[in-house]
Amino acid sequence: MKITYKQFIVNNNIPVSPIYLVFGNPYHLLNEVQSRLERMLRHDETLVKRVVVDSDFDISIISDDFNSLSLFNEKKILILAVVSNSIPKCLTDFLQTVVLPDDLKIILKLGPQTSAFKKTNLFKIIDNTGHIIEVTELKGLDLKNWVKAKFQKNKINFSENQFQKLMEKNEGNTSAISQELYKMSLLEVQDLDDYFNLLQKEYKYNEYDLVNCLLEKNLAKTIKILKYLHTIKIPEVYILFLINLELKKIYSLHHEVSPMPYIPSFRKNLYYQIYDSLDKPLLKRLMEYCHEIDLSIKTSYSHTDVWHKLELLISSFILNKSPYSFINDRNINGYK
To answer: I want to staple 19 with a disulfide (CB 3.0 to 4.6 A). Which of 130, 134, 210, 212 is the partner?
Structure first.
């Protein structure tokens, strides 16, 4: 059975099926559908297995989940996140022939597909035996209702004028609005006026300028923007989140990452170029360093120390050097 994203959101009684196919874009809405399905299917003692599926996928990774019988009658959810352009043939063949155990529920998630995909045997099988949810970018009233629901969930007060201002600022893009809402939650915003006062137009830079300069490897300007964001009190945890996300995108090009970060097709070449130019052990070390900074934020810490670590993180990425190599180097971009 096919279900639109709108039907899925407004319907509180989605039938339980052995398999769910979720496909389309944008990626963050795919993740919303996956999360809701997981909450609906998950009960006490339910086991959840998440598997990233690429073009070189080995079917043996999941075959035991279908063939083995649980000694304790355990319920299982298998989430298959396809990161290749299409479902690998080995997985397609497997799902078309395997008998789905009663104790196993499958969520198959992948990006946008061509119209030919809806004519495949696998699509028809899932349409007959399970549920298919095609996700598309929200528009019109559906978009407004989605945003208003997010505000209500985060207990943010707003007027119609404020709401319209936010929609115009992000040109109705749900991905950009999601990032705005995340930032509001970090700032503990309760009224949109507070938010717009903080992000007034005369600001010279924003967090997206920081990310763009980071990827362009412009060290001087990236540090300048970081310091500016510090002065206007952008939360350091939000800056860390954005930098770590960019590192995950680069790392995910050749490694399994869960959840798989979304990379727009027009930027993939840039990320590949950055990956090729980076020292590979350093890339993993920088991701670990992000975790260290996150722990320092969540425990007792000095705000100045965290921002200094963010400078080290940025410098390490751009200069392709370990963050610890700067400990005795005080001459980079005004380190004090």
So the answer is: 130
